[in-house]
Design brief:
Blueprint: E1 4-12, H1 16-31, H2 39-57, E2 65-73, E3 77-84, H3 104-114, E4 118-123, E5 129-136, H4 149-155
Antiparallel strand pairs: 1-2, 2-3, 3-5, 4-5
Helix pairs in contact: 1-2, 2-3
């Protein structure tokens, strides 16, 4: 694999873009060798969903778009960041037992920590912010594809019966 891979997509701050962000990230990671059905892929899908939802819901219309960036460094660290143009950093909202929202950052931090990663928030030069995760990357093992039986038979000196 390459020493450094990057991918990026900018989407409108619209609820429909959350699904597009998930699909983009999972598809990119699949191109980089991580099967979509891998457990870590499911975890990343949920984290990206929470990050994108936060970028849409908590910018109060002040960020017309958000950008999802992926960086894979030396097959060691995967970084996924979501950038919006709203200046307010995320904060943990008081979440009542009956409340449906306010737990996104808690979920992101918990899932990231469970994978051995970190969550960071940085301001952008333009006055917005990037919330990103860093996860250790273990290159997926490529399954060994067995040769078809006919090819194995021929390579061992056996001949296939003729019909």
């Amino acid at each position: 694999m390459a020493d450094h891979l990057e991918a990026s997509v900018t989407l409108p701050s619209d609820p429909a873009s959350v699904a597009a962000a998930r699909t983009y990230v999972v598809g990119t990671l699949e191109e980089w060798g991580l099967p979509a059905e891998a457990e870590v892929s499911e975890t990343v899908r949920l984290i990206v969903s929470e990050l994108a939802t936060n970028a849409v819901q908590h910018t109060f219309g002040q960020s017309p778009t958000f950008t999802v960036d992926l960086v894979l460094d030396r097959d060691e660290w995967l970084r996924i960041g979501v950038t919006d143009s709203h200046p307010r950093f995320p904060k943990r909202l008081p979440a009542a037992v009956q409340q449906d929202n306010g737990r996104g950052m808690v979920i992101i931090r918990w899932l990231t920590a469970e994978c051995g990663g970190k969550v960071r928030v940085r301001p952008t030069r333009e006055g917005g912010k990037t919330v990103f995760i860093e996860l250790p990357w273990t290159p997926p093992e490529r399954p060994v594809t067995p040769e078809p039986a006919a090819a194995v038979g021929r390579s061992a000196g056996r001949q296939e019966p003729r019909r």
